[in-house]
Amino acid sequence: MRKTITSYLVVLFTFFVTATSVSAQSVQSADRDKINSIVLGMLSQWDEAAYQGAANLITGVAQFDMSSVAVEGLTRLVGIKSAIEGSTDYRLLFNGKVFTGHFVVQNGAWVKESDADDLQFTYTDPNGVPCILKMATSSQTKTTELPYTEIQNLVGGLLGNAKTRRAEEDETSIMDGVSAMMESFLDGVTQVLFEIPATTTIDLTYGGASIMTSSINVDLDKLGASLFDGFIASANTKFYKGVIDGGTPGSFEFDVVQSGYAPGTGIVVDFAAKKDNTQLVSFRVNLPGTFKGLDTTAYMTEEGGIDLGFQSLNVEIDVMGQAQLRGGITDLNAFLMTFIAAQSADAQDEATVKAVLAQLNQLIDAKLYYDGSRSPAATIELVAEYDEEDQEWIAKPYLVFTGDDSRHLLQDFFTTENFPEVAQGVATIVSDLGQLVNNVKEKAEENVVKVNTVNRQSQAGTEWYSIDGKRTTSVAKGLKIVRMSDGTVRKVLTK
């Protein structure tokens, strides 16, 4: 029954993802044309030139040698780790001032110019235009605790996996430096505190003109003693077009409205993307209720079921006001119980599979609407069909259009053959975003190599000190200060 359940879960994800690689007979219908027109309209708003210009400026920060910035950051991290009185444990206290200072480029490398209350990078683009990337936090703050004891096993597992990969990879891997730092940094930590600022701003200017502004605002009144007790934030980011090339002015805007978690309200994610103040797409998810915690004793019921504390899952997606996807899971706990039971259900028994699908069809509701109508244009229905190859009954998701009562297997409807232009448009955007990720990854790996090179060269140092100035040895792990034989002093990370 695993294939049956997996098929249904994939439905909610693939409903609007029309660029699949499945090949099938072309479907010609008014609904196909309607969906094609709506999605193409949204994709046509992508401004590749504006994106490339902004992406190049942002990634430009990483093009210079950042080894000194990395070591400076490590120094600050070590400074926030303190012993808990009366124990052998440690606590971490993060705040907006953990990493601040003004950095400028000298001879292709970042150099700290001065101490400051904010973090700022000043550089020039290939045309010599000055750029400034700045991050600042407000003085109004409130401290909350990460429920670290509940997730440390997960963190430990991730670090263990990273260590295994590190042993199999060469020393140029970015995971080598990052995971080594994390191992040393989290050693002995049992408490993690965050001093959350009410407002965090990030600005990028190009030749004195703003090309990106971002503001993150946290509702401190709703912030609990723990992040699981309440964390609600809003964020707004704007990219301004035409600043670099002098082209048509305008903006792309990304809004996150009152999203996070609060007892009773539950989990809320409310996102919208706009171009020139016109909404392109909005996405809202809500799981109402009060979270019971990650500890299995908190959410496992006496009957062996699961009750996370959330009653339902509600999803709303709107594309340019022309198409809406609404639905979700009406009873989350019942769904989880059915899901667990389905894992051991007999997939070769037709009656058993159909009974499970009947329950799931009642619990999951996903409908497509056009132009804000309350009457659905299409619904999704899960049907049991026999798989001759695997000789078992599986779930097949069908898209049923109410206009002509036509029925289409979901994977045969959303294909590159039915939506070739959509597939090409999505592929272009994915390629652009993927290139940005690759560029950042490559620059990060280059800087890890540089930091490791400095560390290896420093093994010839004559005098070693801890960050607080006490004489030590190079054997001890952590961030150290080393005096070289030529009299120079460096900060290095020993692993």
Structural commentary:
The protein is α+β, with helices and mostly antiparallel strands and 495 residues long. 32% of the residues lie in helices and 36% in strands. It contains 11 helices and 24 strands. A 16-stranded mixed beta sheet has the order 4-3-5-6-9-10-11-12-13-14-15-16-17-18-19-20, with helices on both faces. A 4-stranded mixed beta sheet has the order 1-2-8-7. Strand 21 and strand 22 form a beta hairpin. Helix 3 runs parallel beside helix 11, helix 4 crosses helix 11 and helix 5 runs antiparallel to helix 6. The longest helix has 38 residues. It is globular and about 80 Å long. About 4% of the residues have low confidence.
Question: What is the compact description of this entry?
Answer:
The protein is α+β, with helices and mostly antiparallel strands and 495 residues long. Helices cover 32% and strands 36% of the residues.
Ordered list of secondary-structure elements with their pairings:
Layout: H1 2-14, H2 30-43, H3 48-59, H4 67-79, E1 81-83, E2 90-94, E3 101-106, E4 109-114, E5 119-124, E6 130-137, E7 141-146, H5 148-168, H6 174-186, E8 189-197, E9 199-206, E10 209-218, E11 231-241, E12 250-262, E13 264-275, E14 278-289, H7 296-299, E15 313-319, E16 323-329, H8 332-343, H9 350-363, E17 364-370, E18 378-387, E19 392-401, E20 407-409, H10 410-413, H11 420-457, E21 463-466, E22 471-472, E23 478-483, E24 489-494
Parallel strand pairs: 2-8, 3-5
Antiparallel strand pairs: 1-2, 3-4, 5-6, 6-9, 7-8, 9-10, 10-11, 11-12, 12-13, 13-14, 14-15, 15-16, 16-17, 17-18, 18-19, 19-20, 21-22, 21-23, 23-24
